[in-house]
Amino acid sequence: MVTRGQRRGRSCPHPRSTVGLKFTEQKGVFNHETFYIADFYLPKPYKLWIEIDGAYHDTPKQKKYDKIKDFYLTYTLKFRVLRLTNEKAESITIDELKKLLSSYIRKKSPT
């Protein structure tokens, strides 16, 4: 199911022209029995995995699942994970997005 924030992300000007970076939508990785899909992904050298979370992600069961997923992505695959609420994704300005992405891109991957 696509959230309003995801739709907004897709309807924005292309990220390359907006922030100078080329994103991929719906990037998938397989973890033994689970297939994880990013809403947006910025490949190497950044390895930034972006999730746009709807209200469902506020449930205890989904929070636990997201925590496990983020741990796997961060410590096993060395991705940086950025989660935005649907509301934030809908309201963020281009300047705020540039600043946020810049801060995540500068972060070092966990060792």
Describe the protein in words.
The protein has 111 residues and is α+β, with helices and mostly antiparallel strands. It has one domain (4-106): VSR Endonuclease (Endonuclease, Chain A). The protein is 44% helix and 23% strand. The chain has five helices and six strands. It has helices at residues 4-11, 15-19, 60-76, 86-91, 94-106; strands spanning 24-25, 28-31, 34-37, 40-42, 48-53, 80-85. A four-stranded mixed sheet has the order 1-4-5-6. The mean pLDDT is 80.
Number of domains: 1
Find the CATH superfamily.
VSR Endonuclease
Which class best fits the helix and strand makeup?
alpha+beta
Sequence stretches where pLDDT stays below 50 over 5 or more residues:
none
Q: What is the overall silhouette?
A: globular
Count of individual helical segments? 5
The CATH architecture: 3-Layer(aba) Sandwich
Q: State which percent range the strand residues make up.
A: 15-25%
Radius of gyration: 14 Å
How many beta-strand elements? 6
Strand order in the sheet with the most strands: 1-4-5-6
Give the H and E element order. HHEEEEEHEHH
CATH topology label: Endonuclease, Chain A
How far from one another are the termini?
A: 34 Å
The main β sheet shows up as: 4 strands, mixed
Arithmetic mean of pLDDT? 80
* Helix percentage: 40-55%
* CATH domain class name: Alpha Beta
